[in-house]
Amino acid sequence: MSTATHSLPRTIGAHAILITYTAIALFPVILVVMNSFKSRAGIFGAPLTPPTPKTFDLIGYTTVFGQGDFFHYFQNSLVVTVASLFFVLLFGAMASFALSEYRFRGNTLMGLYLALGIMIPIRLGTVAILQLMVASGLVNTLTALILVYTAQGLPLAIFILSEFMKQVSNDLKNAGRIDGLSEYTIFFRLVLPLVRPAMATVAVFTMIPIWNDLWFPLILAPSEETKTVTLGAQLFLGQFVTNWNAILAALSLAILPVLILYVIFSRQLIRGITSGAVK
Amino acid sequence: MDTETMAAETRAKRPIRWHVGVFLAPAVLVYTAIMILPLFGTLQLSLFRNIEQSQVFVGFSNFRTLFGDPNWSVNFWNALRNNVWFFIIHMLVQNPIGILLAALLSSPKLRFTAFYRTAIFVPTILSFVIVGFAWKLILSPIWGVAPHLMDFVGLKSFFTPWLGKEQYALTALSLVSVWQFVGIPMMLIYAALLSIPDEVIEAAECDGVTGMAQFWKIKLPLILPSIGIISILTFVGNFNAFDLIYTAQGALAGPNYSTDILGTFLYRAFFGFQLQVGDPNMGAAIATIMFLIILAGVCVYLFLVQTRLRRYQF
Hints:
The complex is a heterodimer. Chain A is built from 13 helices and no strands. In chain A, α1 runs antiparallel to α13 (244-278), α4 (70-101) packs antiparallel against α12 and α7 (142-167) runs antiparallel to α10. Chain A starts with 7 loop residues before the first helix and ends with a helix. Chain A has two domains: 3-63, no CATH class; 70-239, Orthogonal Bundle (MetI-like fold), CATH 1.10.3720. Chain A is globular. Helices cover 77% and strands 0% of the residues of chain A. Chain B is mostly helical. Chain B has two domains: 3-45, no CATH class; 63-309, MetI-like fold, CATH 1.10.3720. In chain B, 72% of the residues lie in helices and 4% in strands. Chain B contains 14 helices and four strands. In chain B, α13 (262-271) runs antiparallel to α14. The longest helix of chain B is centred in the first third of the chain and has 36 residues, at 70-105. The radius of gyration of chain B is 25 Å and the shape is globular.
């Protein structure tokens, strides 16, 4: 290693740029969370200082909890995300196992067909999806959302999982076959546990867009019963445009669960994105 | 699915392998029913028109309306122009910043890289609703955070309510979107830079190619395939965008439609807004145009860019 690549001025320069950008990335989040704990006077008087005993106020949070049915929305989001995730992972793993394990005519074609959805967004079919859901009476149900998100997540899941399925040792699977295990047992008992890290990566990738989606809840399930937290927050924010305490509190409440999950799973996510490199 | 029979033909000595079909069926069924069929259904709907309660085939008449009828075409061309600008900003700002950050992060022996990576990726995981509203508040002249900050660097006189001015609103929102998504190119380029074998770098160093020259001459050509991928991802994402504009400016994409892009235009045409009545057929026509634009982009990428850069396999 030459010394020129990490001389002191260069390192300081690199840190300076990275710190600046980190500040830009985090500033809005910190600003919102910080001000959500302040009184109205505090928010407008000194937006850039952390809450002091004088400006500390939870009025925003009490308004949010008093008005919106956030707990219910949160539950809806959770049901939709977990159910879609389950189906994406199960169906995706099954399909990618079939594609990578068995040779049959049309294999490549099937792979290409399933990969189409990575590039073409499902949103473009919305007009006909809505008609389909109206015809089958699924409008304003969580089932409609789960179906759409399952279809949306499958292409990428199959694409990524196929790569990993190919790496599972053939000897292991053949040993299983000699012992008389059925193909289903081989898949569920031998292969699935081995690709668990890849499944976790796919899970994180699939989860974020589903949780954050506004388009399909707005179109397929806008009723009070089925609102997701993203849609609920959007409508809530629209109603309370002038109540800054409530808005900042609602935003903070929407940020925190995602942020906590992210901090827990960030290693998995980043390893997933960079795993192409280690491959 | 014919896979069982096909499989049986190729290996006649084996019985029909039902399990292949069982493994494939759920994914293929859901994917076909919810994604592929509606996509084609939408393309088909764009050729019909609702006349006296029944769908009548009208050929390309909806598209003629979209391109020619001033009630539609003014908004359509405006949305398309705005969408192109939205994309250009992303390509010029988001991707270079992403590459710069990735190049810095991948420099050997730099400390705290895990922290930087995690922190810079935070905006990407946040919902558009949060991002749109948080920036709306920050840029709001009522709160005064933005002018206050600009005062620190002596630029206070340059502050205007960007989101409220026609000439700035779209650029401002594009930059907010860049802020949100810069983590993705950063991560993908970072991964590509890590995958460059040490021998290549060492060989370059032996030849005296270090620092900036090393980046431009050795690393950049090697990460070109990843730059191709992030470009097409940006393209597809941008021409399909909706949420950020909707949350920050509403379905009318104000001020005076200056931030209207194809996604918000589609939403208004499909559902109607205020005085305008929703029209599924026109919505389908707009979705078809978006489909063709994205398809064209993907084809250019697959056939022109990817074949020259190789490596990335389908």
